[in-house]
Structure prediction request, 306 residues.
Amino acid sequence: MDKKSQTKTGGPQGTAASAAPPTVSGRWLLGAFGAVIAAAAVLVYFTLGVLFYAGQWQLVLHPTYKITATPQAKFEEIHFDYTETGVARLDGWWIPADHPTDEDLSVGAPVGSRWAGDSVLYLHGANGSLSNYVADLDALHALGVNVFAFDYRGYGKSKGPHPTEKRMNADADAAWRYLTDTRHMSPERIVIYGTGYGASVAADLATRHAPAGVVLDGPNEPARKVISTDGRAKMLPMWLLLHEHFDPTATLKTLAVPKLFLDRNGAQTRTEQLYQVAATPKDYFELKDGAGYQAAMERFLDGALR
Prediction:
């Protein structure tokens, strides 16, 4: 047999060249495609969960950095809660009770308010900055009591990262220390006043420091209820991821200091629900277009600041 014939009949090289390539079944391709889609879905779901966990504060807290209004009364801007590097994290306003001038005394004006030596620690709600609550501060000042109000970190001029419930509670502790350690005020001469989500912060603060009393002005619905209305939250295991609560229900059941619930929205509201479960002593007052606010507050302060 000649060389030409050997080449046609094929040696080892010819056999390798003519071998058929391996084939992949359609079932295998379909399974691989499904696995890739499933892995991508898990990754997307996990990413969504991480983003929700880190960003859920934005569904309940809406801070601004702007200070567009200030109290009508004279006030002192206070910087406090200093870091180890000497930087003040928090910014607030100290609004002292009015003291009579010589002219007032000459015409027989009272020497001073019966609460001129007492203070209200004001904890604002979720929206804006202190500027959004100037009307409240003016009303409290009109009672003749010292008022200390501040912005949580991430609000107004207060420095730091975005606010969360945990940070707001820590900031409230720092404000309490400012009154008791820097201004040397006794706890029994301090009333904590919280509005909106600040009411939840106020209740928690009271459990740690036992003030003379607590005012809960129009507390919001729990964060869980607010967040659950967002379509994205309904796809996630909130029981595992939720860390913003703002729900003082359990705290109020055992909080023994005097409490005043101010209801601005009528019967069957969140305020009334919390009042019903709260431990005594407690009082409830429904404000109708703001009427009766001063009288209700005076009665409460008379009882709490004895």
